Amino acid sequence: MQAERVYLEQIQTLRAAIQRDKAKGSLTPETIAAYALLTITDDDGLPITPAAHHWLWLRLLCDERIKKLLIIAPPESAKTTWTISAYLGCRIGFFPEQSIIIGSVSGPVAEKRSIGLRTAVETSEWKELFPEILQIRAAGGFKWETHEWSLAPQGKPRPGRLHPTIAAYGTGSEQVIGSRADLVVADDLLDFENSRTSHQRELVETWLHTSLLSRRKARTGRVIMIGTAWHFDDIYSKARKEGGWVVCHLPLLSESNKVIANISYPDNWPFETIGEPVGTAMPEKGTL
Questions:
Q1: CA 257/CA 51 separation, integer angstroms
Q2: Once rounded to an integer, what is the mean pLDDT over residues 41-47?
Q3: What residue spans define the domains of the chain?
Q4: At residue 279, does pLDDT exceed 90?
Q5: Contacts for 77 with CB less than 8 Å, ≥ 6 apart
Q6: First to last CA, the chain
Q7: In 3D, which of 20, 56, 72 has the Cα closest to residue 241?
Q8: Sign of CA dihedral 182, 170, 168, 190
Q9: 221 contact partners, CB below 8 Å, separation of at least 6
Q10: Residue 287 pLDDT > 70, yes or no?
Q11: What digits encode the pLDDT tens for the residues 90-147?
Q12: Mean pLDDT, range 20-49, rounded to an integer
């Protein structure tokens, strides 16, 4: 009984902390970690907690000054878990009327990402954190479908609102044209098939720039692109070369509490940077 009481008190403490942060509009790495602990479990049914490299990603994801963020990491590094399920899952509870477009390698994968988030917001755990954020049921063009759906405080969109909370599209989709977003997330756009020839890589690159990234709202919108490099001339390599991006390249996963990553900033970056000069290790989790 004592252990159960302590556990319940810890849960209430985490919920209260998230709700205080929401009241302040302050989405921090610690907020996301608390959200994940309360709402997401691994394959064994255990709550997830961030590894050292996840703390680094969360710091970058939560930095609204970064308008174009590229995270390149190996397979099985939980990029989608922490970017889509944790970061976006919490973010839409904080800012349900900000529009998010998710792009993925294919339509079915994009739909899966959307369904995962929509399923999360329908759980009792999510509703206990954000009880006032509800599905929009009124008329006005807002859908509740597998690839597009909308939330709002008390389920009532603000006057003049046009765009859904979540819209998800696969690479090559023409439906994305016309949408606008406060945040565009490009989640693992590449695979072996669409990266193996120059023609296929060019098709992905054209769609990325003309259809997906162009949907970001001017000046205020953000782009977060995550993925695994497949070719020396793929969209991630070109983004690193073209500049304008904050790039976090994690070549290998570490089993320790230190992260070895290459982080680069645009030449005119006016804010502080993370990490040490090339050739030294990233600080431990507690010092980030």
A1: 8
A2: 95
A3: 51-287
A4: no
A5: 53, 250, 253
A6: 37
A7: 72
A8: negative
A9: 67, 181, 182, 183, 184
A10: no
A11: 999 999 999 999 999 999 999 999 999 999 999 999 999 999 999 998 767 899 999 9
A12: 97
CATH number of 51-287: 3.40.50
Q: Compute the residue count for the chain.
A: 288
Tell me if the pTM is above 0.90.
yes
pLDDT in tens, 56-97: 999 999 999 999 999 999 999 999 999 999 999 999 999 999
Q: Angle, nearest 10°, between helix axes 29-39 and 52-61?
A: 120
pLDDT-above-90 percentage for the chain: 81
